């Protein structure tokens, strides 16, 4: 290799590796989507995943939302005071929660909780040969392990986002009324009047996309985990980092699509 | 009959299988011996399609294993994994009856449970074991549950990957005897991977030695001690000196 081509090769290798990784994830996602509509279906695994991902994530999403809503109210109040716009607190808290903070923070919290747990579980199954065992028992591991989790997350996260939105707005209301001196009825009326249905629905669509991403990353990295405890640890880390970055990137793309198109 | 012809498999720069030729006749128990890291498990996984071989052909009754209906192909196999590979989230009986409760041969739950308990009894486990989770079992019991799962659907071909690894000599003897009995009574074709010589003598009709990516020697178990092959002699007597490098 000449001195001229060596730097090009040094750039090309990681670029090719990154493209190959993206290709593998896309193929994995396509396989999952393909299996969604073909029997056999595994309702028991789906319901179990729905409980694990949806129901058990409620506390963490709720706590995140209530504190975020409260902090948002304080920030908007103090920022708005600079140009005598304190009255916008209810409407900006509501729009900020349902359009952005509800879905994004909810998605990130679910990524931390669910993507890590899925990747660790499936990674352990991989290194203990349980995934190979599934295949020898004539059961497609993607269909049995990944499809129920991805479907459950895609359906559960929008619901979590909806609940998180309501709790976040309630957090803003609590701070607004008790700390900033807003009239309770006026605060709620302003919130209701200002919000449009698309504000809420767009956040729910974001939630569905983030749910898909979270479970996809957890399943992909878990099922492709390296050997031993280190391999499972690396898979878990990659799942959370990958899901978080993809959520933020997807959020930008969806915001462009929903609100500037 | 399973036939492997010039099968190769490479992982990165590591050429694990360099042209394996081997025939496993129907109804026979073939044991593959060889040092750690010589590709015995890879060979077995290539036959099952869990690992895709790079070149060569693997046929089952003349049919290329990479072609045709994969579910129908896998339905003919049972496998006992080295660590048991039991599903943590399922009870013991659900592990054993896993195949019986899914797919074309699906049975009602009660019937599948009954069969599972019968198979557990066959491998020497009490019915009370059925409702435990794998984590509540000892290593020997987990192997037996794995064995019960492998035979639950009465497959034609059974693979055993290091069936006695990690077991005490008595439990290893019990597992060896069970494997021999089950293979004989089911008339199944068996392929076992091990480096435990007591397993070889208890289980094998024929033995093949895998070394350096190829089958170094193959023959009836009765010929094992008498063969002049230096690789086989070094391996079965556990000598540190010989053609097989002690440090690999």
Radius of gyration of chain A: 22 Å
The tally of structural domains of chain B comes to 2
Number of helices of chain A: 9
Main β-sheet of chain B: number of strands, strand sense, barrel status?
Answer: 6 strands, mixed
The helix count of chain B comes to 8
Number of strands of chain A: 0
Global geometry of chain A? globular
Structural class of chain B: alpha/beta
- Most strands sheet of chain A: none
Biggest sheet: strand arrangement of chain B: 6-7-8-3-9-10
- Low-confidence stretches of chain B at least 5 residues in length (pLDDT < 50)? none
Whole-angstrom Rg of chain B: 18 Å
Domain module tally of chain A:
1
Number of strands of chain B: 10
Average pLDDT value of chain B? 90
Distance between the termini of chain B: 33 Å
Order of secondary-structure elements of chain B: EEEHEEHEHHHEHEHEEH
Give the N-to-C terminal Cα separation of chain A: 48 Å
Helicity of chain B, as a percent range:
25-40%
Strand percent estimate of chain A = under 5%
What do these coordinates show?
Chain A is mostly helical. Chain A has one domain. Chain A contains nine helices and no strands. The model of chain A has no long low-confidence stretch (mean pLDDT about 95). With about 250 residues, chain B is an alpha/beta fold. Chain B folds into two domains: about 170 residues, Rossmann fold (3-Layer(aba) Sandwich); about 70 residues, no CATH class. Chain B contains eight helices and ten strands. Chain B has a six-stranded mixed β-sheet with strand order 6-7-8-3-9-10. In chain B, strands 2-1-4-5 form a four-stranded antiparallel β-sheet, covered by helices on one side. In chain B, α5 packs parallel to α6 and α6 packs parallel to α7. The longest helix of chain B is centred in the C-terminal third of the chain and has 18 residues. Chain B is globular, with a radius of gyration of 18 Å. The two termini of chain B are about 35 Å apart. Chains A and B meet through α5 of A and β6 of B.
């Amino acid at each position: 290799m000449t001195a001229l081509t060596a730097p090009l090769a040094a750039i090309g290798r990681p670029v090719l590796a990154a493209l190959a990784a993206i290709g593998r994830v896309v193929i994995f996602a396509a396989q999952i989507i393909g299996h969604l509509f073909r029997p056999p279906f595994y309702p028991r695994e789906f319901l179990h995943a729905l409980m694990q991902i949806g129901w058990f994530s409620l506390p963490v999403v709720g706590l995140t939302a209530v504190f975020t809503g409260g902090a948002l109210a304080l920030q908007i109040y103090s920022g708005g005071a600079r140009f005598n716009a304190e009255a916008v607190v209810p409407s900006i808290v509501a729009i900020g929660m349902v359009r952005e903070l509800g879905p994004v923070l909810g998605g990130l919290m679910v990524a931390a909780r669910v993507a890590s747990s899925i990747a660790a579980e499936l990674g352990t199954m991989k290194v203990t040969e349980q995934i190979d065992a599934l295949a020898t028992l004539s059961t497609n591991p993607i269909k049995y392990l990944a499809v129920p989790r991805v479907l459950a997350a895609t359906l559960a996260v929008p619901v979590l986002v909806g609940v998180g939105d309501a709790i976040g707005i309630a957090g803003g209301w609590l701070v607004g009324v008790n700390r900033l001196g807003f009239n309770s009825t006026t605060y709620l009326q302003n919130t209701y009047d200002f919000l449009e249905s698309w504000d809420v629905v767009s956040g729910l669509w974001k939630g569905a996309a983030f749910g898909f991403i979270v479970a996809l990353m957890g399943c992909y990295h878990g099922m492709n985990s390296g050997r031993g405890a280190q391999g499972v640890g690396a898979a878990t880390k990659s799942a959370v980092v990958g899901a978080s970055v993809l959520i933020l990137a997807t959020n930008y793309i969806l915001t462009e699509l929903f609100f500037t198109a | 009959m399973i036939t492997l012809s010039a099968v190769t498999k490479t992982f990165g720069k590591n050429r694990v299988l360099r042209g394996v030729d081997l025939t496993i006749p129907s109804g026979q128990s073939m044991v593959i011996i060889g040092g750690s890291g010589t590709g015995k498990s890879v060979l077995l996984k290539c036959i099952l399609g869990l690992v895709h071989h790079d070149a060569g052909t693997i046929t089952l009754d003349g049919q290329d294993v990479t072609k045709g209906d994969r579910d129908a192909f896998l339905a003919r196999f049972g496998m006992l994994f080295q660590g048991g590979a039991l599903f943590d989230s399922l009870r013991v009986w659900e592990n054993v009856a896993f195949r019986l409760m899914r797919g074309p041969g699906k049975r009602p739950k009660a019937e599948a449970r009954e069969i599972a308990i019968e198979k557990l009894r066959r491998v020497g486990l009490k019915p009370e074991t059925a409702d435990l989770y794998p984590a509540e079992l000892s290593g020997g019991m987990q192997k037996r549950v794995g064995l019960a799962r492998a035979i639950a659907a009465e497959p034609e071909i059974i693979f055993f990957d290091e069936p006695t690894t990690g077991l005490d000599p008595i439990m290893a003897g019990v597992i060896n005897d069970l494997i021999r009995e089950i293979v004989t009574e089911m008339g199944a074709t068996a392929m076992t991977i091990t480096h435990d010589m007591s397993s070889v003598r208890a289980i094998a009709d024929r033995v093949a030695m895998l070394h350096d990516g190829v089958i170094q020697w193959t023959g009836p178990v009765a010929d094992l001690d008498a063969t002049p092959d230096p690789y086989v002699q070094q391996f079965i007597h556990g000598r540190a000196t010989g053609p097989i490098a002690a440090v690999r």
